[in-house]
Amino acid sequence: MPSEIDLRFILETLAKIVVVFVIGLLSPVSMNYVERRTLAFIQNRLGPNRVGPFGLFQSIADGIKFAFKEDIIPLSANKWLYTLAPVLAVIPAFMVTIVYPIGPEVNLPFVGPTKLYVTNFNVGLLYVLAMTSLGVYSMILAGWASGSKYSLLGGLRSSAQMISYELSLSLSVIAVVLMAGSLDLTQITEGQAGWFGLQWNVIKWFPAGVIAFFIYLISAIAETNRVPFDLPEAETELVAGFHTEYSSSLKFAMFFMAEYVNMLTVSVLATVLFLGGWNGPGVAAFPLLGPVYFFLKVFFFMFLYIWLRGTLPRFRYDQLMNFGWKFLLPLALLNIVIAAVIGVFIV
Amino acid sequence: MIPLSWYLALSAVLFTIGVVGVIIQRNVIAQFMCIELMLNAVNLTFVAFSRYLGNTTGQLFVFIVLAVAAAEAAVGLAIIICLFRNRETLNVDEADLLKL
Amino acid sequence: MQILFLLFAALAVVAAFNVILQRNPLYSAIGLIGTLISVAALFLTLAAPFIAAVQIIVYAGAIVVLFVFVIMLLNVRAEESRADEQKYLRWLAAPLFLALLAEVFLAVRYVGDAPPPLPAVRAADAPRQWLGSVETIGTDMFTTYVLPFEAVSVLILMAIIGAMLLAKRDPQFGRRRAPAEPAAAAGRAEEVGAGARR
To answer: What ipTM is given for this predicted complex?
Structure first.
């Protein structure tokens, strides 16, 4: 909390929230297009290229279609929970966006010095983990409330996968917290400044950082239910998993947005925790370069997601759970011990 | 600022709602949820006192209560599953004799 | 600040009434989530962000998920009819509730209406060592309260072992189920689905 909560603070925070919310809203739109085109090129076809120049308006057209489609609620569905589930997916996804550390303190022309993040919670990282755990409810409730077997199985599998990989995600992040000494995302970013990238957490305290990075990446892909961990929503397996019965109406659009915003959150965390956040050559002199580097790195991770989707086959469900519980979790625990030993005795 | 008695009053209300819930609910899982509600009310009291006395003891106690509640939930739900397997019902009115 | 307190207090009380008055236990679970999140917000007004985040992660993100899984595992429906012998309890509930509330209020009223001046949340010399911050809680937990911490970890280990043993299916009743709860839920769901398809 600042020393005084006055009108300037309130207006500034509101403006930042609007900006961050718009970034959150734009990410599904743009990433959908990028994903479809990239997947198409990987698969030796063209992808959407008719709507607008190079198909750039495809996502907007899809959005308008979602808004106008008829909203069908199946007869055997529990109406109240069926409507609540997409809302429960979107709210935690968007609430995380307020802790994105987009840039350092810059001097904007009219406003004066502003920090380019909405807030820096003392427990920012725990807050992100908390909102991620709240996202499980949407899958369980959607699967249950749809009243269909595919949905129920898909929902239970998705949520079981998600809570299993949440553990290794949280544990892998502890190594980073040990390195930075704080749960505050801006502090973690500032701790990686300087030395031309040699202070980035991914190579700090070798091998703790690298192991943590890979555990984090794998757990993050499993958390957001993307290939190769997307068995619960693969078309060839379970029709569409927990959102089978959400027939392309605005409710489905909400699930879809929540998934992309979750991807964005996980990519932002990967950059902030491991790749140095807004740090890069020249940020100390020109702080406005901070957001540029930040978005470049985030975009790299999003592209990695799409690349993996186009390249890898998917895991079977029991292989997935075995891998998460029997390999990743012990490795994450071991990594904490390694990081602690290096941190206390060697550094 | 908010006086301490407001937090204590709210905590009392939540605790009382939990107690009433345990008594009037007939589903054993819902009764268990009301027990969690009572624990939550007590947590609120602890954190309020921690703030107003300037001591972290309250917050650490809340941490321990949270861990104990998690352990209790796990074991309690396992017991409820066993109960369900034996009696095929979750209604406490129908499970009131030791004999099956 | 007071508006925030009143808002979240009202939300907590409404959600708590939802927990106790719903017939479908799944709706009670959603009410419980609402209460837990409101209480976490109240923790934030008390400048305890760590406890608020931990409450959401542990309580709302794990314990209630466990409740919901068990409700789905046991396929609990809303109650159709309550047993008639306990009908008088329903009429007795409201006056008893008010009586208990009045009693607790009387006990609480003498705590003191004028609170002592609040200790400063942030000291000027140690900006990261304020009362609810992670650094303070971590320091206290691993110096003064390390014994309860270790005892709690043993307790959680006992709970894990106990829960796994209790929920294991007896081999004579069918295939042995893996101890993981979600796998059990998925197995039960497949049986339900297979049964419904027949």
So the answer is: 0.92
